[in-house]
Amino acid sequence: MKTILITGVSSGIGRATAKLFLENNWRVVGLDISPSPSDLKDKILFFQCNVVNRGEVLKVFKALRRENIFIDALFSSAGILRMGKFEEIDLKEHIAEIDINFKGVVNCIFIFKPLLKRGSAIVNMSSLSALYGTPELAVYSATKSAVKSLTESLNIEFEKYGVYVCDVIVDYVKTPMVLNAKNIATSVRRLGVTITPEKVANTVFYAVDKGKRVHHYVGLKAKALNFLAKLFPFMSRFLARLLAFK
After folding, report:
1. What value, to the nearest 5°, has the Cα angle with vertex 196 and ends 193 and 201?
2. Up-side HSE of residue 6: CA atoms within 13 Å toward CB?
3. Which of 61, 84, 204, 238 matches a 20 to 30 Å C-alpha distance to 31?
4. Strand, coil or helix: 122
5. Rounded to the nearest 10 degrees, how much is the dihedral formed by the CA atoms of 6, 217, 173, 116?
6. Between β-strands 45-48 and 71-76, what pairing exists: parallel, antiparallel or unpaired?
7. Count of alpha carbons within 13 Å of 135, Cβ hemisphere only?
C-alpha cells in the first residue's frame, strides 16, 4: 500500500485530497494544527502538529520512522490567507502567512525527505497570485511565489534522488479560508470562487500518479491567465491592476 503525507488535512483542499487518496487505496498520514475531522478520524494516521514548529514536525518524523513508514508522496496543503490593504492587516498576520505558507513547506520537505522513496513525489500548493503579485494579497502572493521558486529549484535538485517535485497553481477555491474571510479582495469578486477542493484534489492525484510537469494549473481561468502572461509578459501588471482595482 502506498502512503501519502498531507499537511492541512482537517479542512479544505487537504481534506478533499485525503478522501480521494483513501478511495484509491492509499494510506494517508495527516497533519494539522486543528483536530482530525470526524469523518476521517478512524481512516487516517493523524498527528496534531503545527508545521511551523520544527520540533513538532520532528516528532512526527520520529514516530513514522519508528513504525518503519516510508512516504510515496508529500502534499503540503497547509496555508492561510489574509486579504486586505497591506497596512491594514496586522503585522503578526503577515508574519503568520510567511511562517505557515512558506516556512511550513520548507520544514516538511527538509524533515520528511529521508522517508521519501525513490520514485516518490512532492506536491506543493501554490497559487495564481504567484505569477504576479496581487494587490490586497501582497504577502500571500509573496509566499506563494516563494513556494513556486522552491518547487522549480527542487524539481532539478531532487531529480538525482528519483523524487519528482511539482506544484499546483489555482485561483480562488471554495474553502473556509476564502469563503469565511473577514475581508474579501476585489480580485475575488472579479474572478469569482468556482473551483472546488475536489477539483484541486484530482489534480494532486494526477500529479502524483502521472505527473511530469513542474506546474499543474487548475481550471480554465488559471490556464488562460498563465497563457496570457507567457505570451504577453508586459500584460501581467495590467491584468493584476484590472482584477484588483474598482
Report:
1. 140
2. 31
3. 84
4. strand
5. 0
6. unpaired
7. 15
Report the distance separating Cα 81 and Cα 171, nearest Å: 12
Residues 170, 195 contacting (CB under 8 angstroms): yes
- Give 126-185 as a DSSP string: --GGGTS--TT-HHHHHHHHHHHHHHHHHHHHGGGGT-EEEEEE-S-BSSHHHHT-SS--
Between CA 197 and CA 6 the distance in angstroms is 14
d(CA 178, CA 193): 8
Residue 245 to residue 185: CA distance in whole angstroms: 9
Give pLDDT tens digits for 145-180. 999 999 999 999 999 999 999 999 998 787 877 766
E strand spans, the chain: 3-7, 27-32, 45-48, 71-76, 116-125, 164-169, 215-217
User: Do 98 and 199 meet the contact criterion of CB atoms below 8 Å apart?
Assistant: no
- pLDDT beyond 70 at 181: no
b (16+ CB within 10 A) / e for 151-183: beebbeebeeeebbbbbbbbbbbbbebbeebee
Structural domains of the chain, ranges and CATH numbers in brackets: 3-244 (3.40.50.720)
Supply the pTM of this predicted model: 0.91
- For 118, counting Cβ atoms within 10 Å of its Cβ (0-12 exposed, 13-18 middle, 19+ buried), the class is exposed
